[in-house]
Design brief:
There is one protein chain. With 371 residues, the chain is of the alpha/beta class. The chain has 2 domains: 118 residues, no CATH class; 240 residues, 4-Layer Sandwich (Purple Acid Phosphatase, chain A, domain 2). It is built from 12 helices and 12 strands. The strands form 2 sheets. A 6-stranded mixed β-sheet has the order 1-12-2-3-4-5. A 6-stranded mixed β-sheet has the order 6-7-8-9-11-10. Helix 1 packs across helix 3. The chain is elongated.
Length: 371
Amino acid sequence: MWIWIALLVFLIVSMLLGALYLTVAFARFGVFRRVAGESLWKRRALSFGFLLLLFALLTFTMNMLNAVIVFLHLIAAFFLFGLLDAAVVRFRGRPFPFYARGWCALAASALYLAAGWYLCHHVWRTDYALSTDKPIERVRIALFADSHIGTTFDGDGMTRHLETIMARNPDVILIAGDFVDDGTSRRDMLRACEALGAVKPKYGVWFAYGNHDVGYFNNRGFTIGELTDALEASGVRVLADETAEIGPLYLAGRLDASRSPRMEISELLKDAPSDKYVVVIDHEPTDYENESRSPADLVLSGHTHGGQLFPINRAGEWFGLNDRSYGRERRGGAEFIVTSGISDWAVKFKTGTKSEYVIIDVEPKKSGERF
């Protein structure tokens, strides 16, 4: 909890100091001089009013969190280009004839945030090839997490993404939590569940809860029970500290780490057969030590959104909030994969990662092959 309080305090202080800094920086643009004349306080008052209007507009069109993110990037860009400008002017021995650092900071911010918007709203495919000593048939797993229906696509958008995923001919689709959140409408939730019901991979569609699926503020148009009913009515199997055998796989879906109590992984997998490839869906990548000592062969997670924003995209690992922010890792006898998510919660930019779905091919090792 302390880390979130510290982060909130940091954001508030950064925004207050940054607002003062941007007010001074924006007042140097020629348009404010032409409107307010040579009066410094008038230019700064006009600059502050403009920034306040911009913040309100961003809050209205996106939300306050995204407005804060845009402003933090503006603050960072103006500060960095201010340092660069000072160094270049010192080298040249004279200032630029126009407000170079201001225009460069605006251009850099716009390009950087536009790239972040694209990385968040466009969805890539990420492939992994795994091998196992177990005598199983080759199986293709499609994984996605953190769809947060309503952030970057709605229920109909889920249909389009599932069409793309099914074009890869997966044998099974696994959903590692945060299918919805508090911002998801009932209509979009039902439409997204219908979309899942329309796809028919060989071994079906399986789901494990994330922290947002339960809901935090009780202000959305459906309950966790109604979400579960809609998923199951569409043929999606929900695993809540439960296991199931399907083809060559032994699936286990864990309750989210935020739910208490939940089963220990050793208890959940106590009956795992030795001839099946054991796949665990665990939304939050926070139990690697125990899972690496369990019968699990593969643990699939989301939750981190791949670290979301550079340069804090590894902050979760730095502060011990999760075991990994993104990608593949082998620990003990298990493979671990964390996906950056097919969408996002609230924030509409990804500058430290990209949105994705994952295709995992698992096949038995060939004779003489080393792992």
